[in-house]
Amino acid sequence: MVGLTASDVHPTMGVKIFSAGAAACLADVITFPLDTAKVRLQVQGECPINSPVKYKGVLGTITTLAKTEGPVKLYSGLPAGLQRQVSFASLRIGLYDTVQEFFSGSETTATLGNKISAGLTTGGVAVFIGQPTEVVKVRLQAQSHLHGPKPRYTGTYNAYRIIATTEGLTGLWKGTTPNLMRNIIINCTELVTYDLMKETLVKNKLMADDVPCHLVSALIAGFCTTLLSSPADVVKTRFINSTPGQYTSVPSCAMTMLTNEGPTAFFKGFVPSFLRLASWNVIMFVCFEKLKRELTKSRQTVDCAT
């Protein structure tokens, strides 16, 4: 270990998982109001046709929500959101490099196929583990829009209990299929695009492997991801938030949206979704890279001292 710099020492899997979870939680706290605005815009339109439009645009949604329900409502579902990042993001991001190395085998450089396979694997595993937190988060963010002044749930753990007792344990995994589709798209697009952009910028000596490079790569990854994942994201939100019997299946939910609201319904909340995902990506990836380096440096210092 003597003579090696922090960049020469590869972070352990534990360091990656912890760094990913911590960075994702920080990003979630900062960008959560945008996520709430996205959810409110996505579920808008499920009400009867003669209902007045309640939210218009990102700032309009955030302002209206803060005025009518209080600023705290912008963070409704945050505990479930943080639980989601701990159980979901820590695995899908933290395990990505390790799984990629597994698929690469003896190859010195990972191919695009290896990167996509790693994204599919970590994304799929993370969805099944973190789905209950996604269900609770979405319902807490959207509940007042569909259910009037009296909320369905009074808090995070109350939501877990009521969903489990009224809909069964399977209710906590409602919408797993569209969420799996969404997260497969997100994981492959987000991680692969970020990885490829960073690799291209560094390899062609356009930028050094530092914060500006991570920032540019994260922004590009955020836009590509939002564009491709928006239809699955809207269907996922609608289906998860629906009351029992409202939709018979995920395709039924998608067809109802298409029939009643047209193709543009699949891109509802696109702007807040992009702003949230892009800013989330920037905060998460920059913090993730920095945290990995610092923890690896600390580990190296401890190893040298012993």
What is the strand content? under 5%
Proportion in helices: over 70%
CATH-defined topology: Mitochondrial carrier fold
What is the number of beta strands? 0
Structural class: mainly alpha
**What does the radius of gyration come to?**
20 Å
Q: Let me know the largest β-sheet.
A: none
Give the overall form: globular
Top CATH class: Mainly Alpha
**How would you state the average pLDDT, rounded?**
85
CATH architecture: Alpha/alpha barrel
Low-confidence stretches: 1-6
Total separate domains: 1
Distance between the termini: 11 Å
In DSSP terms, counting alpha (H) and pi (I) runs of 4 or more, how many helices? 10
Structure description:
The chain has 306 residues and is mainly α. It has a single domain, classed as Mitochondrial carrier fold. Helix content is 73%, strand content 0%. It has helices at residues 13-43, 58-69, 78-94, 96-104, 112-147, 156-167, 176-203, 211-241, 250-261, 270-305. α1 packs across α3, α5 crosses α6 and α8 crosses α9. The radius of gyration is 20 Å and the shape is globular.
Name the features:
10 helices, mainly alpha, disordered N terminus, globular, Mitochondrial carrier fold, transmembrane helix, 306 residues, mitochondrion
Q: Care to give the gist of this entry?
A:
The chain is an all-alpha fold and 306 residues long. The chain has a single domain (13-298), classed as Alpha/alpha barrel (Mitochondrial carrier fold).
Secondary-structure map:
Blueprint: H1 13-43, H2 58-69, H3 78-94, H4 96-104, H5 112-147, H6 156-167, H7 176-203, H8 211-241, H9 250-261, H10 270-305
Helix pairs in contact: 1-2, 1-3, 1-5, 1-10, 3-5, 4-5, 5-6, 5-7, 7-8, 8-9, 8-10
